[in-house]
Write a structure and sequence with these properties.
Layout lengths: L1 H13 L9 E7 L38 H6 L4 E8 L20 H4 L8 E5 L2 H6 L19 H15 L4 E6 L5 H14 L2 E4 L5 E2 L2 E2 L1 H15 L2
Parallel strand pairs: 1-2, 1-3, 3-4, 4-5
Antiparallel strand pairs: 6-7
Helix pairs in contact: 5-6
Length: 229
């Protein structure tokens, strides 16, 4: 009996970590904070990191994909990144900067293209806050396309769509630090309504409005801590 146990013990030690448990497939739905050129699905999505958005004179020390928060997270043996559908400058709702129509890139348009994940990480609201989009009212049903040009109805629709489209996935919303009170409070309220965990970030170092290497590390650590609970 002891010999058999001893043999199994050493087999377990020699096996790769991923062989001891099933990896969880992770999908990211995000904006510029989650981009890096050459790693997006679809590959035509506009990228801020290692991409043309923002020009060539960006003063940010993130230069390698391994430094991004999502790469750090999915490099952990229990996770596998299967889709990163992030688009620089995108808003959750259909209203973009200078009140332009962003329905071609909004989160609620891209929500349908995340594959078959076990975990979904939604990191949005930053551009809605920065662009000063209409806030609107809390609306948990009966959406029209026009109502989705405001943040609250659109975020409600986004959370409802995630639960309907991916019923077996664990869904997490990530709220950036330093957003408007209206956007931050709305995300907290709506996530509570749908029973979705909302990860409110804090103390994120930024350069040119975007996470630095240190900021990316902090995002990774805060998200990983919640996922591990």
């Amino acid at each position: 009996m002891f010999t058999r146990f001893f043999h199994l013990f050493w087999v377990a030690l020699l096996l790769p970590a991923t062989a001891l448990f099933a990896q969880q497939k992770v999908a990211v739905l995000g904006d510029s904070y989650s981009t890096f050129g050459g790693y997006m699905t679809p590959e035509t999505n506009l990228c801020w990191y290692n991409g043309p958005d923002g020009g060539t004179d960006k003063k940010n020390d993130v230069t390698k994909v391994e430094e991004t928060w999502w790469y750090r997270l999915t490099a952990m043996p229990q996770y596998e990144l299967t889709c990163n559908n992030s688009y620089s400058g995108s808003t959750v709702c259909h209203t973009g900067y200078r009140k332009k129509d962003y329905s071609d890139r909004s989160f609620i348009t891209r929500v349908h293209n995340l594959g078959t994940p076990d975990i979904i990480l939604v990191f949005g609201g930053t551009n809605d806050s920065w662009a000063g989009v209409p806030i609107g009212h809390y609306q948990y049903e009966g959406w029209t396309k026009q109502s989705l040009y405001a943040f609250r109805p659109a975020f409600c629709y986004l959370m409802a769509s995630l639960k309907q489209l991916y019923p077996d996935a664990r869904i997490y919303s990530i709220t950036n630090s330093e957003l408007s009170d209206a956007v931050t409070g709305s995300m907290e309220e709506i996530c509570g309504h749908y029973g979705i965990t909302n990860i409110r970030l804090h103390d994120i170092e930024k350069q040119q409005g975007h996470p630095s290497v240190e900021g990316m590390k902090s995002i990774y650590e805060q998200v990983a801590a919640v996922l591990g609970e």
